[in-house]
Design a protein that fits this description.
Elements lengths: L2 E6 L5 H13 L3 E6 L4 H7 L5 E4 L6 H5 L6 E4 L9 H6 L3 E4 L5 H16 L15 E5 L3 H12 L3 E5 L5 H7 L2 E2 L3 H7 L2 E4 L13 H6 L5 E4 L8 H10 L4 E4 L6 H7 L4 E3 L9 H21 L8
Parallel strand pairs: 1-2, 1-3, 3-4, 4-5, 6-7, 6-9, 7-8, 9-10, 10-11, 11-12
Helix pairs in contact: 1-12, 5-6
Bound molecules: 3-phosphoglyceric acid (3PG).
Length: 306
């Protein structure tokens, strides 16, 4: 009998686990759970005899993969798979998948929660500003970007997108303006949302030069990954531009310094929670379980990333 392990430091909503169990057990497999583990040794022991693994942002490195001698498939229940050592998995013939689009609306909604918090001065009762009519730049027009554009249009914002998946024609079809590269996006948008993956091409690319280009009273929101922003540059920009504000669901390593030095101008969630809604958990968790069943039963490799 195939054993499917759900290993999550940050657990899914219990309803999501119920759905996942239904899918896995209906196929005649066993669902195992390892939630809120604090020690990597627990993960290494839990993967020892499982055939499939479902993770979230959990570190799935070569040590974990090597400890899993029966493992055939890892599904990252979510979009970004920078936590999985793809090369190590490929070397071992382990299929790696993600579940694109399943949690993206939750991340898009949180982006606007962070934005409203900043433009309304942390809800402290003083006069803030509105989102209405402001230019909203989306860096990375994927599943989250599309939800952001829909919500931003509801606020009557002027939406612009920059993405390798976008051109003039596709942007026009989506009803947004096209930015031909980050320079155009950053120099034109008063508010920017970062929605690009973290990989060797994107690490640290959001630098001082780009941030300094933003028009006056800019806000940068990062719900993607902390690695894409140059943290030293971010601190410098906050120092050099008194009008610059930053919100992130992926707090930087210098979080405490920034909070202390720039109160009211930076906001960070307590822990990464963009995808932390019941709906997103159910969507991504159920998709992960279904993809595993389809892989074992039909050899279906849709959403394979390696
Ligand atoms: C993703 O890549 O899907 C999001 O960043 C959500 O990550 P999480 O599952 O750790 O909340």
């Amino acid at each position: 009998m195939k054993k499917v392990l759900v290993a999550t430091v940050k657990p899914f909503a219990s309803e999501a686990i119920d759905h996942m169990r239904d899918v896995v057990e209906a196929a005649g497999y066993e669902l195992r759970l390892l939630e809120k583990y604090s020690d990597k040794a627990e993960l290494l022991a839990a993967v020892a005899d499982v055939h499939a693994l479902i993770v979230r942002s959990d570190q799935c490195d070569a040590e974990v993969l090597n400890a899993a001698s029966e493992l055939e498939i890892v599904v990252r229940a979510g979009a970004g798979y920078d936590n999985v050592d793809i090369d190590a998995a490929s070397k071992k013939g382990i299929v790696v998948m993600n579940t694109p689009g399943q949690n993206s609306n939750a991340v898009a909604e949180l982006t606007f929660g962070l934005l409203l918090h900043l433009v309304r001065n942390g809800f402290n009762g003083t006069a803030g500003t509105e989102l209405f009519g402001k230019t909203f730049g989306i860096m990375g027009y994927g599943n989250i970007g599309m939800h952001l554009a829909r919500i931003a249009k509801g606020f009557d914002m002027d939406v612009m997108g920059c993405s390798p998946t976008l051109d003039e024609e596709l942007a026009a079809e989506a009803g947004i303006r096209y930015a031909d590269g980050p320079t155009v996006l950053f120099s034109s948008s008063r508010i920017i949302s970062l929605n690009i993956p973290s990989n060797h091409d994107t690490r640290g690319i959001i630098n001082r030069e780009l941030m300094m280009m933003m028009p006056k009273c800019p806000i940068l929101v990062n719900t993607a990954r902390k690695e894409i922003i140059n943290e030293a540059d971010l601190e410098k920009v906050l120092e050099e531009r008194e009008d610059f504000r930053y919100a992130a669901d992926v707090a930087p390593n210098n979080r405490e310094i920034l909070e202390k030095r720039f109160p009211g101008r930076v906001v960070f969630t307590t822990k990464k929670m963009g995808a932390q809604t019941a709906e997103a958990n159910i969507n991504a968790g159920t998709a992960a379980a279904s993809q595993i069943v389809a892989f074992f039963q039909k050899g279906d490799t849709t959403f394979q990333v390696n």
